[in-house]
Specification:
The chain is mainly alpha-helical. The chain is built from six helices and three strands. Strands 1-3-2 form a three-stranded antiparallel sheet. Helix 1 crosses helix 2. The longest helix has 34 residues. The chain is globular. It starts with 13 loop residues before the first helix and ends with a helix.
Length: 173
């Protein structure tokens, strides 16, 4: 009986399931997104999010714990060097599951699981917006705008003064 066992067994033995999740987690970390079934994506999310939380603090102990789950030096290096700095300010929810329809062969419900901070379409970074705003307000552009503005105002004021005088003269005639 399966009383109190809440995780999805995925129709596999324990060793096969742990190997499957380890390999999928390595692929997710290296490629930033993978296509799989919805059931495997949900199981992978439960498996990989605690590892991402551990990676936020780069210590030897955390590296060894993560390596015991992933069994891949390349994935651990990628996780601690590129993924961890991007997710450092996030308090959880590092992955996103997007359902993509049904697989043609067996009609399995498929999904795309991805790391949230690595998708620029859904999540344009606030830092990039700040840099673009700063580049638009560069000092050279600001000086040119300041210099051009008084000259334009002076030119505008002179014709206004002439036009008001001419209107007064026409009104007086």
């Amino acid at each position: 009986m399966r009383h109190g066992k809440k995780f999805n067994h995925l129709g596999r033995t324990a060793s096969h399931r742990s190997a499957l999740l380890s390999n999928m987690a390595c692929s997710l970390i290296e490629h930033k997104r993978i296509n799989t079934t919805v059931a495997k994506a949900k199981a992978l999310r439960v498996y990989v999010e605690p590892l991402l939380t551990k990676a936020k603090e780069d210590t030897t102990h955390n590296r060894r714990i993560v390596f015991s789950y992933l069994q891949s030096k390349e994935a651990v290096t990628e996780l601690f060097r590129t993924v961890a700095p991007k997710i450092a300010e996030r308090n959880g929810g590092y992955t996103r599951i997007i359902k993509t329809g049904f697989r043609p062969g067996d009609a399995a419900d498929t999904a795309l699981i991805e790391l949230v901070d690595f998708n620029e379409l859904y999540n344009p970074n606030a830092e990039e917006k700040k840099t673009t705003r700063r580049s638009r307000r560069s000092t050279s552009t600001a000086k040119v705008a300041v210099e051009a503005t008084p000259a334009v105002e002076e030119k505008v004021e002179e014709p206004k003064a002439e036009s008001t005088d001419s209107t007064e003269e026409k009104a007086g005639e």
